């Protein structure tokens, strides 16, 4: 092939974005082809609808498969260019006057045929330069794909982190209301402790919000670093074979280091400050042996529908098929039903990580499914989210940004004032207090523990 034909051949295999020979070419809806890395960077900002960089035609699909034929032709074009370059003076061995057409991976250098047979290289494996370079490009393309995938994952995590910040601020505002309401039931001597508690919450919340803000900044900067590294690797793939092979090891180490520097998300958690004398006061309303010693095995699930949530218990003999999200649980129901007064009891969750407890509308237990809806219950539950157990409440569903109790949980029912509160007995602190809302039906305590 003469130089004019070679030039024409390579022109047809040139990406119109980077003006280099195709790397992992893809063909979009309009028929034009581009390097996948170039198209990814071009479309990175996520503009909608996506358009062809060449003809501005709309691309209906966001993802495309590699054009295998174009990829093979691009490889042949690079090889033809490399063969042409081998005739240049810098590619000729000064000792043997032959082209350096072999790559020694052990020595990371280019050799001619006679040099490869010398004692210092004879025991090494040698490959044609073009083949070694193409294999190196494949390694870089796979690494680039992995980096881009991490970057896309970070986009999702970044959105979650930003959403978590907003949720946390709303929760802090709600927790201020809970703490204020709790202290209003205390003696006037506790006013000073209330103020200290609120100030400590304010300062701690400020610090955690700053951590969340810094986390969002770190993730944003990390995504930008990945983008810059991706762009650098794209340019590296287009470099001459010899230059590419000589820096490959350092480039791979650089990408490994970038992967290890992936920032971790923040898990906001407030300190549970003890309320002086709260358990002594609550024990004045203590009810012992609140639950039946007879436990029934049900299949329990927490279903959510918009702002509504329900707890569903299914008897083990019930004929309906199990849904995938339903887990087998042991349920203990209260032996008493409350229609007035103040009552306090404690439940032990030491040996379980997944549980749900609280009060609900008195329901006759039969062999049919039992559904407890949000307006009929005040519940606290522990469930696993992203390999971490967290506390949640219903009406409305809220995540509790406090430490999960590992021992006994106190439940205080003030029926006449329409209030239910949960306490960490070990720490003597408030977990959550439902804001007052009048009850219009009898309430029964219960504890549901997931079977191991």
TrEMBL record:
Residues 15-56 form the RING-type domain. InterPro entries: B30.2/SPRY, B30.2/SPRY_sf, Butyrophylin_SPRY, ConA-like_dom_sf, SPRY_dom, TRIM/RBCC, Znf_B-box, Znf_RING. Residues 269-452 form the B30.2/SPRY domain. Gene3D superfamilies: 2.60.120.920, Classic Zinc Finger, Zinc/RING finger domain, C3HC4 (zinc finger). Pfam families: SPRY, zf-C3HC4_4. Residues 191-218 form a coiled coil. Keywords: Coiled coil, Metal-binding, Zinc, Zinc-finger. GO terms for molecular function: zinc ion binding. SMART domains: BBOX, RING. Residues 88-129 form the B box-type domain. This is Tripartite motif-containing protein 64-like. It comes from Muntiacus reevesi.
């Amino acid at each position: 092939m003469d130089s004019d034909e070679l030039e024409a051949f390579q022109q047809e295999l040139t990406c119109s974005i980077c003006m280099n020979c195709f790397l992992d070419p893809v063909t979009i809806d309009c028929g034009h082809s581009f390097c996948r890395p170039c198209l990814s960077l071009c479309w990175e900002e996520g503009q909608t609808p996506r358009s062809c960089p060449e003809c501005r035609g709309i691309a209906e699909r966001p993802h495309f498969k590699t054009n295998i034929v174009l990829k093979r032709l691009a490889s042949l074009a690079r090889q033809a260019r490399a063969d042409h370059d081998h005739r240049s003076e810098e590619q000729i061995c000064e000792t043997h006057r032959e082209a350096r057409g072999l790559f020694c991976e052990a020595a990371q250098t280019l050799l001619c045929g006679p040099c490869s047979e010398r004692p210092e290289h004879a025991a090494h494996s040698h490959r044609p330069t073009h083949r070694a370079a193409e294999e190196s490009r494949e390694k870089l393309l796979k690494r680039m794909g992995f980096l881009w995938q991490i970057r896309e994952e970070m986009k999702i995590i970044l959105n979650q982190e930003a959403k978590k910040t907003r949720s946390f601020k709303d929760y802090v505002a709600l927790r201020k209301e809970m703490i204020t309401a709790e202290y209003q039931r205390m003696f006037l001597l506790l006013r000073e402790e209330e103020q200290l508690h609120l100030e400590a919450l304010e300062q701690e919340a400020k610090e955690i919000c700053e951590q969340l803000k810094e986390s969002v900044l770190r993730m944003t900067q990390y995504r930008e670093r990945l983008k810059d590294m991706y762009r650098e690797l794209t340019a590296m793939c287009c470099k001459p074979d010899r230059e590419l092979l000589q820096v490959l090891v350092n480039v791979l180490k650089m990408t490994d280091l970038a992967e290890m520097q992936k920032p971790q998300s923040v898990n906001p958690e407030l300190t549970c400050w003890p309320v002086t004398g709260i358990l002594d006061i609550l024990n004045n309303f203590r009810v012992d042996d609140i639950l039946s010693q007879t436990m029934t095995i049900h299949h329990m699930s927490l279903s959510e529908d918009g702002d509504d949530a329900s707890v569903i218990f299914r008897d083990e003999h019930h004929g309906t098929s199990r849904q995938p999200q339903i887990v087998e649980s042991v349920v203990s129901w209260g032996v008493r039903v409350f229609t007035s007064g103040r009552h306090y009891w404690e439940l032990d969750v030491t040996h379980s990580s997944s549980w749900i407890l609280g009060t609900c509308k008195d329901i006759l237990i039969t062999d049919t499914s039992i559904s407890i809806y949000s307006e009929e219950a005040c519940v606290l539950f522990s469930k696993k989210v992203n390999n971490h157990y967290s506390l949640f409440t219903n009406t409305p569903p809220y995540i509790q940004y406090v430490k999960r109790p590992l021992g006994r949980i106190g439940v205080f029912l003030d029926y006449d004032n329409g209030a239910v509160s949960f306490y960490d007995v070990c720490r003597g602190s408030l977990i959550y207090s439902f804001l007052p809302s009048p009850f219009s039906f009898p309430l029964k305590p219960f504890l549901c523990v997931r079977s191991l």
